[in-house]
């Protein structure tokens, strides 16, 4: 490569020239952006079968929102935080600062091990229920619960017994045809159109932007759809999908106590999209059978989670007036 053959002086001169070219090009950025949007409008209108006027209106609105979002981020300094270089861990000896990479990782592992093992003594994780259901509920006892004919063992926690009585499959569901397990190429392509290419994923697999770009190629889209469909239809998990990366993020700005941080899990990109399909199909079937609770506002059409919070606030206000 040229970088390994030229002298440090030539490298410095090339970098200086590149910066000058960048500064000159930056002055034309707004014009180039407008030209790009004009070409994008025509492409979108042709692809969607809409008019250029409607696509122009949509893109102008998107551009305004992006500009406003960038302004808000600059004011709030959101997205400008540096990497976490320290966490605090509290034990019986007090509060300790962890500053090295190994110490921070060990503290995160200890916290997550404690956080995600809190259910180890609950009824379904102990005998007799764990003997009947295992850890994946893939036993005959689980099928009996769905059919409503499971005989609850003696000594079972009374609240677990009440829960088991409500886990049968309603007759409205049994009367309908099973949900399709097919992932067609067209469905695959449409799904990737709606995904944000900046979404993080488990790093050992390909990222969102790879699949989003591949969905535009007919051959790659068909191949990727098939690779998603095989695990989805058969129920097995590829080895690559079994890697999960735990990431600690701050709940509150500048609060680095490990027990006050939030743990999120990054999963394989294809697994993520399959989980979204599964949730969407199940919610759709629940809506068809009228089985979704009235107080369920999230993940539903013509519903907003904020409405539930508003209803709660208004209810509390009315109660205080009495």
Structural features, described:
Helix content is 54%, strand content 7%. The chain has 322 residues and is mainly α. It has three domains: 51 residues; 71 residues, no CATH class; 125 residues, no CATH class. The strands form two sheets. Strands 1-2 form a two-stranded antiparallel sheet. The protein has a two-stranded antiparallel sheet with strand order 3-4. Helix 9 crosses helix 11. It is extended. The N and C termini lie far apart (79 Å). 8% of the residues are buried. The model has no long low-confidence stretch (mean pLDDT 90).
Task: Please give the structural blueprint.
Elements: H1 8-26, H2 29-48, H3 52-76, E1 87-91, E2 94-98, H4 101-115, H5 129-133, H6 140-147, H7 158-165, H8 171-174, H9 185-193, H10 208-214, H11 218-234, E3 245-250, E4 261-266, H12 269-288, H13 305-321
Antiparallel strand pairs: 1-2, 3-4
Helix pairs in contact: 2-3, 9-11
Strand order of the largest sheet: 1-2
> How large is the radius of gyration?
27 Å
- Helix-strand string: HHHEEHHHHHHHHEEHH
Instruction: Give the N-terminus to C-terminus distance in angstroms.
Output: 79 Å
Helix and strand composition category = mainly alpha
How many individual helices?
13
Gross morphology: extended
Number of strands: 4
Mean pLDDT: 90
Query: Helicity, in percent?
Result: 40-55%
Brief summary of the model shown:
The protein has 322 residues and is mainly alpha-helical. It is built from 13 helices and four strands.
């Amino acid at each position: 490569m040229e970088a390994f053959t030229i002298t440090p002086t030539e490298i410095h001169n090339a970098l200086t020239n590149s910066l000058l070219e960048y500064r000159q090009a930056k002055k034309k950025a707004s014009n180039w952006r407008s030209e790009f949007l004009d070409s994008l409008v025509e492409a979108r209108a042709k692809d969607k079968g809409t008019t250029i006027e409607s696509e122009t209106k949509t893109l102008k609105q998107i551009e305004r929102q992006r500009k406003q979002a960038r302004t808000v981020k600059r004011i709030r300094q959101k997205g400008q935080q540096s990497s976490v270089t320290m966490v605090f861990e509290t034990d019986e000896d007090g509060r300790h600062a962890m500053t090295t990479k190994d110490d921070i990782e060990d503290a995160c592992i200890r916290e997550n091990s404690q956080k995600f093992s809190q259910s180890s003594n609950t009824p379904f994780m102990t005998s007799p229920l764990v003997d009947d259901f295992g850890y994946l509920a893939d036993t005959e006892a689980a099928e009996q619960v769905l059919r409503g004919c499971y005989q609850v063992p003696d000594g079972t926690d009374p609240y677990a017994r009440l829960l088991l009585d409500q886990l049968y499959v309603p007759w409205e569901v049994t009367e309908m045809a099973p949900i399709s397990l097919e992932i067609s190429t067209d469905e695959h392509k449409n799904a990737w159109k709606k995904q944000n290419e900046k979404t993080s994923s488990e790093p050992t697999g390909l990222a969102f932007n790879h699949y989003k770009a591949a969905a535009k190629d007919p051959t790659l889209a068909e191949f990727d759809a098939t690779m998603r469909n095989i695990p989805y239809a058969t129920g097995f998990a590829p080895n690559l999908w079994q890697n999960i990366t735990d990431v600690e993020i701050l709940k509150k700005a500048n609060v680095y106590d490990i027990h006050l941080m939030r743990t999120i899990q990054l999963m394989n990109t294809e697994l993520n999209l399959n989980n979204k399909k599964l949730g969407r199909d199940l919610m759709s079937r629940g809506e068809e059978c009228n089985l979704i609770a009235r107080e369920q506002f999230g993940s539903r059409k013509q519903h907003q989670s904020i409405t539930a919070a508003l209803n709660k606030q208004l209810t509390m206000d009315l109660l205080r007036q009495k």
